[in-house]
Design a protein that fits this description.
Largest sheet: 7 strands, parallel
Number of domains: 2
Shape: globular
Radius of gyration: 21 Å
CATH topology of the largest domain: Rossmann fold
Distance between the termini: 26 Å
């Protein structure tokens, strides 16, 4: 039986948390692998029921997580007698003493748009810190035996950036698991959704951050109000734009000011954070899903929205095209007028919306968390073979070939 150690200390919000929540059930169902997961104490309590998985709680200093991992994890990996390490948080362990797969899933380190955005917001400290973290992320790709990216588009970007081979193993989606929780939404959320009944509802699932490009979406709202006059239009957000209400250090003041300047406060419904298990209920209330992000690595909400049958309008970036294909409508990533036009076209045509919903459901079936886990474990087994470990190129060729059949 293989012993797999997973560093999931970075799984606190967004895609990292989505990844752990979906991967662990499939690992728990396997009889050929024993799993050890380094995770925060809060998440340990959420996942404690999984068989074949031991959770090692670590609550080190958030601001110095990288250095904490470098000093503390190697001994834990050795004590667990692990065969392979899977690092899920963009940064590798320098000397783990076992073969290491690095999951790189943060595109802001590579994004010229993000750095320009930070300078425009006068976030000079964040600009410097991101540059420094980017240097560590690139160095981590050199430390790891193999780096895996969640999409072909991001893998190609990483390879150009790091000048190292990067394998794409697409993230997955499980419709049955995603929709299995039938418990009601929190009362405050239900009340807000009830108040929005009768409106045309646009949904955007994300905590507030800069690279998800909230401001372009907000700028599109007055155009939508002018284009659609027979019914009110509401934008549903799974976050709050008030300061101090979101994870991370992203400042919401600029977005809040923009809402007031444009006079669109009555168009925005801030649902706040929704339990992941209940998100499917929110998707079902939406008429269209929008993702204005200017950089991405996989974009799980696109797969979720398509699977539920919500038409998707997304920014014109390679990752979005890879996930949605012909099932979505696209707009230039900073063009709020084109965004409004695309959304209005979907909202104004039941035939278009129905066709996009059908195409999205079909498209979502190509993603599978079970397939993802199987492919990652194939890589782990390959890394245990010294001959294959010496040749990352040969290993990538082998696994990519099996994945294409």
């Amino acid at each position: 039986m293989m012993r797999l150690f997973i560093n999931a200390l970075a799984a606190s919000a967004g895609g990292g948390l989505t990844y752990i929540r979906n991967v662990l059930p499939h690992l728990s169902a396997r009889d050929d692998v024993k799993v050890f997961v380094a995770v925060s104490s809060d998440l340990s309590r959420e996942f404690c029921s999984y068989r074949q998985i031991d959770f090692l709680e670590m609550d080190g200093p958030v601001g110095r997580r990288f250095w904490y991992e470098q000093s503390s994890l190697p001994n834990m990996i050795r004590n667990a007698k692990a065969d392979v390490l899977l690092s899920t948080g963009n940064f590798a362990i320098r000397r783990p003493r076992v073969p290491q797969i690095l999951l790189s899933r943060n595109s802001i380190y590579l994004s010229a748009d993000y750095y320009r955005d930070l300078l425009a917001r006068k976030e000079y400290r964040t600009w410097i810190e991101t540059r420094l973290r980017g240097m560590l992320a690139r160095k981590s790709i050199q430390w790891a035996d193999l780096t895996v990216a969640p999409s072909e588009a991001f893998a190609a970007d990483l390879a150009r950036w790091s000048r190292r081979r990067v394998l794409a193993v697409q993230h997955g989606f499980d419709y049955e698991e995603f929709t299995s929780d039938k418990s009601p939404l929190p009362a405050v959320v239900s009340e807000k959704l009830l108040a929005a009944e009768g409106s045309l509802k646009i949904l955007f699932v994300s905590h507030y951050n800069y690279y998800r490009n909230f401001e372009t979406l907000i700028r599109a709202l007055p155009r939508l109000r002018n284009r659609i006059t027979d019914r009110p239009v509401k934008l549903l957000l799974t976050c709050n734009l008030a300061p101090g209400k979101n994870p991370g250090a992203y400042r919401t003041e600029y977005a809040s000011k923009l809402v007031q300047e444009l006079g669109v406060a009555e168009m925005i419904v801030e649902l706040g954070s929704i339990p992941y298990q209940q998100l499917h209920d929110v998707y079902r209330r939406a008429d269209v899903y929008v993702s204005p992000a200017y950089t991405e690595t996989f974009a799980h909400p696109l797969a979720e929205a398509m699977a539920i049958g919500v038409p998707v309008v997304a920014s014109d970036i390679p990752v979005h095209h890879e996930i949605c294909g012909d099932a979505a409508r696209y707009f230039p990533r900073f063009a709020h007028e084109e965004l409004a036009q695309s959304v209005a076209h979907v909202l104004s045509s039941q035939e278009t919306a129905r066709h996009m919903a059908d195409a999205g459901r079909e498209r979502s079936r190509q993603f599978s968390w079970k397939t993802h886990v199987d492919q990652v474990l194939d890589l782990c087994h390959a890394l245990r073979n010294p001959a294959i470990r010496e040749s990352a190129a040969a290993m990538i060729h082998r696994v990519s070939g099996s994945r294409s059949h």
